[in-house]
Specification:
By secondary structure, this protein is of the alpha+beta class. The protein has one helix at 2-30, and strands at residues 35-40, 43-48. The longest helix is centred in the first third of the chain and has 29 residues, at 2-30. It is rod-shaped and about 65 Å long.
C-alpha cells in the first residue's frame, strides 16, 4: 500500500511541474511584439521586437 501512495505522489509532482513549465512557456509567448520604448536615466531607448 505505501508504494501506491508514493506512486501517486510522484505522478502528482510531475503534473504540477508540467503545469508550471506550461504556464512559463505561455507567459514567454504572451509578451507583446512590436515596438518597445523605454525611458530611463540613460535617455530614451527604442527597440523593435
Amino acid at each position: 500500500m505505501p508504494n501506491r501512495n508514493v506512486l501517486y505522489l510522484v505522478i502528482g509532482a510531475l503534473v504540477v511541474i508540467a503545469g508550471m513549465l506550461g504556464y512559463n512557456l505561455y507567459q514567454a509567448k504572451k509578451q507583446p511584439e512590436g515596438l518597445q520604448i523605454n525611458v530611463g536615466p540613460d535617455g530614451v531607448k527604442i527597440q523593435n521586437k
